[in-house]
Every structure is written in structure tokens, then in C-alpha cells.
Amino acid sequence: MTFDETTPVTVGEMTFDVRFAGPEDGTPVVLLHGFPETSLSWSAVTPLLTAAGLRVIAPDQRGYSPGARPLDVADYATDVLADDVVAIADAIGLGSFHLVGHDWGAAVAWVAAANHADRLSSLTAVSVPHLAPYGAAVAGDPDQQQRASYIGVFRKEGKAEDLLLENEGKRLLAMYGDGVPADQAAAYLAHLSEPGALTAALNWYRAMHADLASLPAVTVPTTYVWSDQDLAIGRVPAERCGDFVNADYRFVELNGVTHWIPEQAPDALAEAIISRVLS
Predict the structure, then answer these.
(1) What is the residue extent of each domain of the chain?
(2) CA distances to 102, 144, 176, 256 from 109, in Å
(3) Which residues 6+ apart lie within 8 Å of 31 measured at CB?
(4) Angle value at C-alpha 45, between 201 and 75, nearest 5 degrees
(5) Is 76 one of the catalytic residues?
(6) Which residues in the chain land under pLDDT 70?
(7) CB atoms within 10 A of CB 211
(8) Catalytic residue flag (residue 259)
(9) Backbone angles phi and psi of 245, in degrees to 5
């Protein structure tokens, strides 16, 4: 079994497609992808983690796995997505584990860290900071308000799907800029073009509630990785992130890197993850 292949993992009535790599007895690290990506976003990072002896577990999350694609928007609430992480860990026999998330995967990881601290050995959040300073910045920082303006479009059912997939997915592909290799971007587009897939992924946005901005501080050792060329996340919430971690905290700033850190800066990201996991 290679990282290019997925293994079905059953959780209740749903089946998640999960990629595994590294020694079976290695320290377990769960990697959560963002939007609009899949677990393949970790392809360049994974060999670096496994070379350090880590066991990588990278699921296609709810809505991205065809066997875990419920129809109701409410089924994509962030708390539910965070519960999935623990349920997948239970299904494969993990006790405690290290958690890494990028973009939406980071948002889910923050909630998982707040709600399931007893299961997490550490957290590495990539791009998206703790949701309290992010929510505060969206409410009061003009720069972050402008950066987050796309969210309102994504929450419009039907319109967002049409916008992103028309003209053979031209707008969706444009989101990646130069940060994602063309073949990988094409693979993401193909996956999200499957019937119901993009709607399910966008339901993560549609199920968001304002109470995410009230998420309490996390209490697990945490590294936050942010890039200064990120169009979606500004410096204000990034620099306030540490105020919401009541544990050992590291802020890693990558210069000249866009939002797509796992694909564009895998070496730096792997270094940050390994340093956190093995510390």
C-alpha cells in the first residue's frame, strides 16, 4: 500500500478513504487537508515525515470521501468534522496522536484540540490560526474582512458550485495560482467535479456558525505555521494566535510562500511538524 492508494475506514454508517504511510509502529500523525484539496495535498510532506519514523494517517474528510457524503448542510458543522477525526482514530486503533491541519483542516484541528485535548499529543496548525482571533479579525480588521470576502460567495448554495466549475473549472484552478503543481490541481478539480462532491465541500462553509469565534484556548503543545503571502489570512489574526494557546507555543512564519504551504513549502512544513512531534 502506497500513499497514492486509499484504504476504506468505516465509521458508523460512513466510510472514509484514508492514506497511510510510514512504519506501522511509528509515532502517529493525522494530517487534515483543506479546501479545495484532498489528502493528496500531503504528498510532498509525507515522505519527509516517514523518513523521520512517523506514521502518517491522511483521510479524505467528510464530504470528500464518497462514502462519507451526507446531504444535509447541518451534517458539516465544524464540531461534527472534529468528531470525525477522533472517530477515525478510534476505528484504526489509535489512542493519542499528533494532529496537523491545513486551511479548513486547521480549523477542524483547532476545534478538535479544544474539544478532545485528551486525545491529542500536539497540534500543528497551518495557515488558519485559532478561530477566536480569526473571528475577531473578520469582525474588526478591514484587511482580514477583505481577505475573507470570498466566504460569503461560497455560502450561496448553487451559485458557488456554478461559479467554480464553469468553463472546465477555470476559477477553481485559478485559486491555486502558482502554489500547486498543475497535475495536482487537476486531480483536485477532478475529485471535486464528482457528483455532489463540491457541494459537500462547500457545505463546510455553509454550516459555519458565529460561535466558532468563541472557541476557548487550547491546552495542547501547538505550532502555528503562517506564510506572509497568504491571500486569505492576514498578519493581525496570525500574530494573535499564540494568545489562545495555554501550552508550549511556536509561531513559524514562512516568507515568500502563498497559502498553499503543503504543496509549495513541504520541506519547511515537515521541519516544523517533526520538530513539534519529536520535541
Answers:
(1) 7-277
(2) 9, 21, 22, 25
(3) 39, 42, 45, 46, 56, 57, 58, 100, 101, 105
(4) 20
(5) no
(6) 1
(7) 11
(8) yes
(9) -125, 110
Q: In what order do the strands lie in the sheet with 14-21?
A: 7-11, 14-21, 54-59, 27-32, 97-102, 120-126, 222-227, 249-254
Judged on CB neighbours under 10 Å (0-12, 13-18, 19+), 103 is: buried
HSE-CB at 203 with a 13 A cutoff on CA atoms is: 21
Q: Angle 22-25-26 (CA atoms, 0-180°, nearest 5)?
A: 55
Q: Single out the catalytic residue among 76, 176, 205, 224.
A: 205
What is the structure's pLDDT at 16?
98
Among 103, 134, 188, 224, which one carries the catalytic annotation? 103
**Three-state DSSP class for residue 277:** helix
Asked if 205 is an active-site residue, the reply is yes
Q: What is the structure's pLDDT at 279?
A: 86
What's this model's pTM, rounded to 2 decimal places?
0.98
Q: What fold characterizes domain 7-277?
A: Rossmann fold (3.40.50)
